[in-house]
Design brief:
19 helices, Four Helix Bundle (Hemerythrin (Met), subunit A), mainly alpha, four-stranded antiparallel sheet, 4 domains, 6% strand, two-stranded antiparallel ribbon
């Protein structure tokens, strides 16, 4: 155990205070950027200093974790001698104090990247960087108030260790990905706040697009890895429970998707709002998770916290900013008639915003009423939006396949029937839903194989978007089949025998360890076996099994979405974001006429 000087331990909080002061000075320097010639160089120096300080602060806490310095409350509560090196490091974001410090570090680095990008493009708006610096100060101060370097009144010989559920590779990467997504949305917030008619065109075509895609990518990966963690670690085969904290992460992702897919708003005020709103929802989610409001309602929420007032102030500040700047533009009545176009993308954007609104209402309703919103509300909302998306895909593809459209319908029906017969699906309503979901996938596959690769690339200017959209359809298919046709049962098993656990899966029980959760992967489904509470080594015992048919479609779909967004992010700046079957514009005023619907 390290028994170094207490001054070094106390240095952690001092560094946080210093970083907040330096960020404040950088914000002031950024405001003076257009008036003082030395301000740019001064801001650069201040930012570099701040980033170095706060990174050293985080590394200092990691150092104490790795060396088991149980003088610190945080190290005592989240580490122990038996932890592997990987989890000794990932314990940094296992608790509220360390995770806020990690977010402050990530946000500081992204702020530095933003500053360099603004300078490179000679971006002279005085509101953009100072507003981001204020956000960074708020995050640093929340980390400071949480006291990550609080010292114990005595020195224990062993720590409490890391929660077993958190000792998982996916959980080791999940929080950093989410925080990168949140900080990318903070950049969007600042750019939206600083948007004016002189720079709006520039922002839309370059920086806003990049940061929206980056937020979409990293927050999406964070949500996806969180689902993988839940599926592996929680033992009941669930990957999404419509938990309030899960919803609070999904809402900004849906809003970012709306930004990426649509630019056809009628008002510049709405343009400003849509860039600022994702971070407002991220701040809302942070408030829910860390204020203690949901400590009895969510497995993801932190328990009692001293951060309720700072967190509420953080959320209120972002809400007031978005209200002020949007209402000021509405009063000016600046209607952008050029964007008054009804298109498939604009309809898709409306559906995304509508789904985000439904999830938001379902999340906050229990906070005010005390009543619980059943998961069926969220499930059917998601199903309705999924069917609406399917109709949009079909409408977009129909113009390219008029002569073969009914053949596609028939092919989709045959595929659906074969899958349902092999999996013994019998519900008529869900069979129809599956059939509808297969139609756009069949259309996309036919278009892909009917054209030469070079011709296909010319037709689909952005194949990465096509990959992402195909991933969405696969993810929806996997979610529907693994949820609607899931089977849960208690099974009496006999040692050394075979047991049928649903959908034709005969399992050799002698090969399983029945004292812990086990996942069996078959071609058609995953089967999750959980021991009964009174499990024993007797000849006969009861276990609980959950069968998730075609769950692999969900995981493949998630991977394709991530790969598609990643490809779109690294595509050249002047690119467009296309749909599956026809080229349509992304953040481009010259949208393709093929994407417009006559009304």
């Amino acid at each position: 155990m390290v028994q170094g000087d207490d001054i070094l331990v106390n240095a952690g909080e001092f560094i946080l205070v210093l970083a907040a002061i330096i960020n404040f000075a950088a914000a002031i320097s950024g405001i003076l950027l257009n008036k003082k010639p030395f301000a740019q160089k001064l801001t650069n120096i201040l930012l570099i200093t701040s980033v170095i300080f706060i990174t050293l602060d985080m590394l200092l806490l990691v150092y104490y974790q790795v060396h088991h310095d149980f003088r610190l409350v945080y190290v005592y509560e989240h580490t122990s001698f038996d932890l592997s090196p990987v989890y000794l490091v990932s314990a940094l974001w296992a608790g509220q104090e360390g995770s806020l410090l990690l977010w402050a570090v990530i946000n500081s680095w992204i702020g530095f990247v933003l500053w360099r990008a603004l300078n490179k493009q000679n971006f002279q708006n005085k509101l953009v960087f100072p507003s981001f610096a204020v956000i960074n100060i708020c995050i640093i101060m929340m980390a400071l108030f949480s006291q990550p370097f609080k010292i114990m009144s005595y020195v224990p010989t062993e720590g409490l260790g890391l929660n077993l559920a958190l000792q998982d590779p996916w959980m080791a990467v999940h929080p950093p990905l989410v925080f990168i997504g949140y900080s990318s949305m903070a950049v969007l917030f600042s750019l939206g706040l600083g948007t004016d008619p002189k720079i709006e065109k520039y922002c839309n075509k370059t920086m806003l697009r990049r940061w929206a895609l980056q937020g979409l990518l990293f927050l999406g990966m964070g949500i996806f890895t969180g689902s993988l963690w839940a599926y592996r670690a929680l033992g009941w085969g669930g990957y999404w429970a419509w938990d309030p904290i899960e919803n609070a992460a999904l809402i900004p992702w849906l809003l970012l998707s709306g930004i990426v897919h649509g630019e056809y708003t009628a008002s510049k005020a709405m343009s400003r709002v849509k860039y600022m709103l994702p971070f407002v929802m991220a701040a809302f989610g942070t408030f829910l998770a860390r204020s203690g409001m949901l400590k009895d309602k969510s497995i993801h929420a932190y328990t009692g916290s001293s951060l309720s007032i700072p967190l509420f102030a953080f959320f209120a500040m972002s809400v007031l900013a978005i209200l002020y700047f949007s209402l000021s533009e509405v009063k000016r009545n600046e209607i952008n008639k050029q964007y008054r176009v009804i298109s498939i993308l604009s309809i898709l954007t409306v559906f995304l915003y509508a789904f985000a609104a439904l999830v938001f209402l379902g999340t906050i309703f229990p906070l005010f009423s005390g009543a619980k919103v059943a998961t069926v509300f969220f499930n059917y909302s998601a199903l309705f939006i999924s069917i609406a998306f399917t109709f949009l895909f079909i409408a977009e593809c129909y113009t390219s396949f008029k002569e073969a459209f009914f053949k596609v319908i028939f092919t989709s029906a045959v595929i659906t029937a074969l899958i349902c017969l092999s999996m013994k699906f019998t519900s008529l309503i869900w069979l129809i839903v599956l059939w509808m979901l297969f139609i756009p996938l069949v259309l996309w596959v036919i278009k892909t194989i009917s054209l030469k690769p070079t011709l296909y690339l010319k037709k689909i200017k952005n194949p990465f978007a096509a990959v992402a959209h195909a991933g969405v359809m696969l993810l929806i298919l996997g979610a529907v089949t693994s949820t609607a046709f899931s089977e849960q049962r208690a099974v009496l098993i006999t040692a050394g025998g075979y047991t049928n656990l649903g959908y034709g899966a005969n399992i050799d029980i002698s090969q399983l360890d029945l004292e812990k959760n086990t996942t069996i992967h078959t071609i058609g489904s995953d089967i999750i076996i959980s021991p009964a509470e009174n499990a024993s080594s007797s000849i006969e015992q009861v276990v609980y099994s959950t069968t998730r048919p075609l769950i692999w479609l969900f995981w493949i779909g998630g991977v394709l979405i991530v790969l598609g967004i990643l490809g779109a992010l690294f595509k050249r700046a002047g690119s467009t974001f296309e749909g599956i079957c026809s080229p349509v514009g992304f953040n481009d005023q010259s949208a393709s006429s093929s994407s417009r619907l006559s009304v």
